Amino acid sequence: MGTTPALRDGAVVIRPIRLRDARALEHELALNRGWLRTWEATNPHGPLAFDVRGSIRSLLTHQRAGGGVPFVVEVDGEFAGQLNVSGITYGSLSSASIGYWIAERFAGRGATPTAVALATDHCFFSLGLHRMEICIRPENAPSLRVVEKLGFRYEGLRRRFIHINGDWRDHFCFALTAEELPEGVLRRWKEGRVPAGAGVVPAADRAAALSPLRVR
Ligand SMILES: CC(C)(COP(=O)(O)OP(=O)(O)OC[C@H]1O[C@@H](n2cnc3c(N)ncnc32)[C@H](O)[C@@H]1OP(=O)(O)O)[C@@H](O)C(=O)NCCC(=O)NCCS
What we know:
- By secondary structure, this protein is of the alpha+beta class.
- The chain has helices spanning 22-31, 33-37, 52-64, 111-125, 141-150, 185-190, 203-210, and strands at 7-9, 12-16, 69-75, 78-89, 95-102, 131-136, 153-164, 167-177.
- It has a single domain, classed as Aminopeptidase, CATH 3.40.630.
- It has an 8-stranded mixed β-sheet, with helices on both faces.
- A hairpin with a 5-residue loop joins β4 and β5.
- The site of coenzyme A has 19 residues, from α2, β5, α4 and α5.
- Coenzyme A is lined by residues 35-36, 39, 100-102, 107-113, 136, 140, 142-143, 145-146.
C-alpha cells in the first residue's frame, strides 16, 4: 500500500493520523465524552487503561500491516474527528469496514458523509477494493442518516455484533460495491443522483432490533 494522501472536498479534509495528533485527539475525546460514550467500541474483557498515543500507535501498526487506513477528519483546518477504514482484506473478498465520529461542535454540517464518501472512493479507486461496509446501532439516528444520504444499501441485522458501551450490541449493516457506482460515492451524492430508499431498513428488522436476542 503506498502513502495515503490527504483528500479534500470543500472545508472537509481527511488525512492519515500521526502520532503528533495525540494531543488534539485527547482534547477532543475529553471534550466529547458524553457525546461519544453511547457509541464507543469497548473491550469485552473489561475496561483497559486508555492511552491515546497507544491507540494511535496501534492504528499505525494495523496500517503498516495493510489492514487499515486511519484518518483524521479536519473541518476548516481544525481537528474534528476520526474515520477508520479497518478490516481490509484483499483477494477474493477485497473488502473493508468504515467507522467514524465527529466532535459535537462540528455535527450537522455534512462533514461525516463527505469524509465517508472521500474514504470510500479512495478505497475503491486507489486501493482497488470492491466492497465497503458500515455497521450502525439501530438507535443511532444521526449515523443512519449518514449512510442514507450516501445511498449505502441496507444488507441486514447483525445480532450482538460489536461490543459497544459495555455490551454486545445489535447492528444494522450497510454496504456498497465499486461496480454499483463507477462515478464514485462523492460525485453521485453531490450531483443528487443517490437512489431513494437504498438505506431503508425493513419494518421487520426494525421490530426485531427492538427485542434483544435472548442469551443464557
Ligand atoms: C453520527 C455522526 C458521525 C454524524 O456526523 P455529522 O457530521 O453530524 O453528519 P451530518 O452532518 O450528515 O448529520 C447527520 C444527522 O445528524 C443529525 N444532527 C445534526 N446536527 C446534530 C447535532 N448537533 N446533534 C445531534 N444530531 C445532529 C441530523 O439528523 C443529521 O441529519 P440531517 O442532515 O438530515 O439533518 C455524529 O453524530 C457523531 O459523531 N456521533 C457520535 C459518534 C457516532 O455515533 N459515531 C458513529 C457510530 S456508527
